[in-house]
Design goal:
single chain, eight-stranded mixed sheet, 8 strands, Spore Coat Polysaccharide Biosynthesis Protein SpsA, Chain A
């Protein structure tokens, strides 16, 4: 039987936090009175995190573990958790003890009001103000403006989703923070509630100012996908029109200067305008051709390939492991019998 709730957590070098975190998670989930599973996605940890996760899974069948072969990043770990979840409600949170599992009950209560996505809002953050809080506030306002989904805290991992809200959501790059935007494109109802936030007491933060730059790049992608995903020729076409306009204006001024002397006399070799006109003409043609190529690529969008963005080394407490092994054995036997 599939559980009602699926809680998934990316884990990367959180050995010092996992014991306390797991106790709080089990206590909070048991209190809900619903069937649940806890999916830990070990993102290539180099400490003893995976050994602890294996121990959790050994003593509780509701705990499932996915271990990556190497560190793929938080987005890949979130994608693996979503892919593996079996519940009708999916809940994501960090493994650094800065989120409170007790807030899960409040997220679910908000879902029961008719919402499809409930995002946590760390209203009172306990992080470095200049290096974490200020860049986060700027990024959140920018994301809300571009994505048209007004949330105060896109960076908070503690979120609850109805399963249908995540259908068709495929994550790449650092896109996990934009899941509410993806979901809103499908017409689901998105809201947020304040949640508790605690200072990190153990382990090392995996975030820094460099992530702000990545967010800016991802915002460009989000804006393109929101406005031009199915019509890329529009953005390339307008750029091509601008290049053609500059080419025409440059050529016009070059002819006026040579044949009328306005605004001052100059031959073609005395001004860079003819060269600029040719360069802009060629650039305009290239932009139009790139737009046509992009239109064709949209038809074979990379999501249709079904290629995952991660590779799994081992799964623990996954019932389909034995079935998959049996299929592989039967295929090997058939191959040997045939050849």
């Amino acid at each position: 039987m599939s559980p009602e709730l699926s809680l998934f957590l990316p884990v990367y070098d959180e050995e010092d936090n996992l014991e306390e975190l797991h106790e709080k998670i089990i206590a909070s989930m048991d209190k809900l009175g619903r069937s649940f599973e806890v999916i830990y996605v070990d993102d290539g940890s180099t400490d003893g995190s995976l050994d602890l996760l294996k121990a959790f899974a050994a003593r509780d069948s509701r705990v499932r573990v996915i271990a990556f072969r190497r560190n793929y990043g938080q987005t890949a770990a979130m994608a693996a958790g979503i892919d593996a979840a079996r519940g009708e409600v999916l809940i994501a949170m960090d493994a650094d003890l800065q989120n409170d599992p007790a807030d899960i009950e409040r997220l679910l209560a908000k879902l029961d009001e008719g919402f499809d996505v409930v995002s946590g809002w760390r209203k009172e953050r306990h992080d470095a103000f200049l290096t974490r809080v200020v860049p986060s506030r700027i990024a959140n306002r920018l994301i809300s403006f571009i994505g048209r989904v007004p949330l105060h805290d896109y960076g908070c991992s503690l979120k609850a989703y109805r399963r249908e809200a995540l259908k068709g959501v495929h994550l790449y790059g650092e896109m996990h923070r934009f899941i509410p935007i993806y979901a809103s494109w499908a017409g689901v109802r998105v809201t947020e509630i304040p949640v508790a936030h605690y200072p990190r007491l153990a382990g090392k933060s995996k975030y820094g100012l460099s992530r702000t730059v990545k967010i800016i790049f991802d915002l460009v992608t989000i804006k393109f996908m929101a406005s031009y995903l199915t019509k890329p020729l529009y953005v390339f076409g307008w750029a091509g029109v601008l290049a053609f306009a500059l080419s025409f204006v440059s050529a016009l001024f070059a002819f006026l200067m040579k044949y009328t002397g306005w605004p001052h006399p100059a031959s073609f070799i005395q001004t860079p305008l003819p060269v600029l006109a040719m360069v802009m003409l060629v650039l305009g043609i290239q932009l139009f051709l790139m737009g046509l190529i992009a239109e064709m690529l949209v038809r074979t969008y990379h999501e249709s390939q079904g290629k995952p963005i991660y590779t799994i080394k081992k799964k623990i407490n996954f019932e389909d492991d034995q079935e998959e092994e049996g299929i592989r054995n039967r295929r090997n036997y058939q191959y040997r019998e045939r050849y």
